[in-house]
Every structure is written in C-alpha cells, then in structure tokens.
Amino acid sequence: MKNFYITTAIDYVNGSPHLGHAYEKVLTDVIARFRRLMGDNVYFLTGVDEHGQKVQQSAKKRGIPPQQFCDEVSEEFRALCKKLNISNNDFIRTTEERHKKVVCELLQKLYDKGEIYKAEYKGFYSTRQEQFLQDKDRNPDGTWPEIFGEVTEIIEANYFFKLQQYQTWLVDHLKANENFVFPRYRQKQVLEFLSEPLNDLCISRPKSRLEWGITLPFDEDFVTYVWFDALVNYYTAVIDKPEFWPADFHVIGKDILVPPHAVYWPIMLKAAGIEPPKSLLAHGWWSINGSKMSKSTGNFVDAAEFADKYGVDALRYFMIREMSVGQDSDFSLAQFLARYNAELANNLGNLVNRVLNMTTRFSAGVLPAPEVSEQPEQDLQALWIKTRDEVITLHEGFQFHSALERTFGFITATNAYIQTRAPWTLAKSTEAKDAVLLRTTLATIAEALRLGVTLLQAVMPGTTEKIQSVLGYTAGAVWKDELEWGSRLTGSKVAETAILFPRPEGDKAAKK
C-alpha cells in the first residue's frame, strides 16, 4: 500500500467561502477518493489560515477579538466541507497550538543556522496582500496593480530569511523535476519568475503594527509573516506521521503558485533540511456568467446554498465536468441546467429508472442471470473495457472532465442498447428464445449501470451509493475488482423506482 498525502491550500478566514473554495475542495477530494479506490493509503488535509493584518482589521471592525472572528468564519469552511461530502482526514487551523509549536521550532532552527537576520527595510507595502513590493511589481505606467489595493511607503526594522542564496538550487531542482508543477506550462512560469534575482524574504511584522500572529521565538516584539506561518501547515499536520512526508500534491489556485508555493515553500524546507513536496497542482479560476466573481456586485454563487437546491453530487459533477484542471472556466446557471438535464437526469437518471422499471415489470423485481452473448452484448462489453481503461488513465492524469465524458458515453451506449434489444417487445413474445434474450437484456443493462456508476464513485460518491442500493447491491472492498464485467447482480431485488435528479423548477438565475 502506497502512502499518498494531498492537501488543499488553507483558506484565509477574512471572508466566507465561495465557489472557488468549493471547487478546490471537491477537486482535491476527487483525487483523494480515486487514490483510495486504487489502493493507496491516503491522508487528505484541508483547513484555514487565521493570522494576519486583514483578520485583525476585520475583527476590530466588528468589535470582537480576532480569535472569536476566526472561530466563526473557520466554522463556515468546516461546514462547507461537510456539506460537499469532502473526505478530508484532518482540518487544520493556524491558531492551533500544534501549528504554532512547529512554526516556532522551524523559525528557531533557521535563526540558529544563520538563515534569518535583522535589517532595516524601506519600501512599499500592500496591506491587502500583506507583502512588501518592489518597483518591478508596478504597472508599466508606474501605478500599482489593483490586486495590491492601497500601497504605502514604510521604513521599519524586520527579520529577513535568506531566500536569494537558494535561487540556483531551486532552478536546478525544477529542471531536475519537470513534473514539479501541474500543468507543466505553469512550471515554465515559475522558471521565468526565477530568471530575475530574488530578494531575501521579510518574515516578520512589528507588533506595533500587527499583533495577530505567531510571536517570533527569538524576538517577542515581532510576529511571523503570514505566509511563513501558513505554508508550514502542510508539514505541521503530518509531523507525527512522517511516512506521509513529503506531500504528493499541494492543490492550490494559480494565483498563489508564484511566489508562495513554488518559491518560498521549497526554499524554506531546503534551508531547514526538510524534503520539499513532490508536486504542486495549480488550478484555474471560475468566472460567473462570463464576469469576474464578486460578492459586492452580486455576481456570486453560494456553493452551500446551491448544493442544497440542486444536490451535492450535481454540483460536484458540474464543477469537475466543466473545468479542465489547470484552466479557467465559467459557471452559469444555464450551462449547469443544460448538463443537469441532459447528462444527469435524461441520461443517467433515465437509465436507472429504465433498469428498475423493466426489472419490476418483466422479472418480478429480481435481476436474472445473463444467458446468451450475441453481438449487441459483445459490443457493449467491449466498449466497457475500452471505457474503463481510458477512464483510469485519464484520472491518473487529472483529466477528470474527459473521464466523465467517456463514462457518460458508456451510459449513453447502454441506453442505446436498450433500444436495440427492445425488451418491451421481447416481453410480448411467446418464443422461448425471446424469453432468454429478455433475461439477458435485463441482466446486461443492470450490470452496465453498476459498472458505469462505479467509475463515478470519486466524483459522485453519494449517487453511486444510492444507485448500488436501488440495485440491491453492496460493493466489495476492492474497487478494481468491481470494474470487471460479471454477474454479481444475479438474484438481486431492485427498488421499484428512484428519483435521483428531480427536475429543477422555475430557475432563471443562479442562487445569489
């Protein structure tokens, strides 16, 4: 059994969760579930980032202590994980003592090694991004990009981490590990970033300006820079489970690839004598109805409310089906409903009810054994083998959208097989051979349905379980064994009906 450690980014608690947070959780969950199905020993971490100036300011604005503010917002993220059926093993908060302890130990270790020094800094600071800026960060006209918000010039003493001296090592590491970043073209972006000299990283903030953070173990007048604190969470969570380190994948948004995850993090670990993660997976962004997602303008989807209205698995399916991992995509109610109706309700949902209805009508609700294998059955079985092998390969390459397309192609073919065999006509015949074909047809469509939904298990775990239940079937412990065409369902008593994807009523716009 291979150990497999995967993490999401930890979400900053300065605001409530949105669709982007939901997508990252679901994407990581799909990977984690698939690796478990393949037999790996998976440890899946998610959580929240709770320190920093923005949290301190938001708490002050509400007139409550920062810890209370963090407690309230972090619970929203924890609830979202539960709502979306996320199978995380751990939920970490950077205000937890276990995390503070590891951060302080790492800081002290680097300080003792001479990797951290104190110096005066004069320059520009972005409160929104909580980072110091350089002239190269400006727009061509000299202004600051909107992402930085208000930028002020400051002069203050701080502690710096010797980032620059590891630049050559990092470049060599990336060239030796061409799959360090997925998609691979983003690795080229990291190397482009590293083509310019790095500055040493300011890793402290004076308490006179920021109190809400982890106090430096070697100077009580300063707290730790939020990124130097936050990144360590991945290591904190498994420090007592060393078999899981280094992480197999950190799943993150493309906006925090460079420099935090692809530059700061591996260099921090290298300096501390800790092995860097194996890979980073940088996913794209969602727009809403073709425009940038914004709660203030109302161009916003509340993932939890949307899941309540349309179903958790329907939302999970749409996000994974619609976005190619690494690329951007657009979320619109019209496109969601198009996929919901055509693919989930009319294709999969229809197949489920055809199987249940015809088994109830023509076989007293008990699935018969297949008795013959002629061209239609052989064609469907051959398509299954092709589909199964392609889907597994696509999953391993994170091409989940294409894997779902192939899976639903097989479900479409199963519905077409029903039309070819026309069991309603066979049931009217008095010929013995037609009775044999009828029993074979019922067994074949039920087995094809069982197999098809087995491929959906990582993306739609709840739906898979429901369909197995209405087929009167309990899956075995070894997922790969479940992918073999056979007669496992023979003698199973099926339900009379199942409503998996009810028709949405009266929707003209996404739930705001």
Structure description:
By secondary structure, the chain is an alpha/beta fold. It folds into two domains: 3-283, Rossmann fold (3-Layer(aba) Sandwich), CATH 3.40.50.620; 333-482, Isoleucyl-tRNA Synthetase, Domain 1. The chain has 18 helices and 17 strands. It has helices spanning 19-37, 53-62, 66-83, 97-112, 167-176, 184-193, 226-230, 233-236, 257-272, 303-310, 312-322, 333-363, 375-396, 400-421, 423-426, 432-454, 461-470, 479-482, and strands at 3-8, 11-12, 41-49, 90-93, 116-126, 131-133, 151-161, 181-182, 201-202, 204-206, 215-216, 219-224, 249-253, 280-283, 286-288, 291-292, 329-331. The strands form four sheets. Strands 1, 2, 3, 4, 8, 13 and 14 form a seven-stranded parallel beta sheet that branches. The protein has a four-stranded antiparallel beta sheet with strand order 6-5-7-9. Strands 10-12-11 form a three-stranded antiparallel beta sheet. A hairpin with a 2-residue loop joins strand 15 (286-288) and strand 16 (291-292). Helix 10 (303-310) crosses helix 11 (312-322), helix 12 (333-363) runs parallel beside helix 14 and helix 13 (375-396) packs antiparallel against helix 14 (400-421). The longest helix is centred in the last third of the chain and has 31 residues, at 333-363. Mean pLDDT is 96; it is low at 508-512.
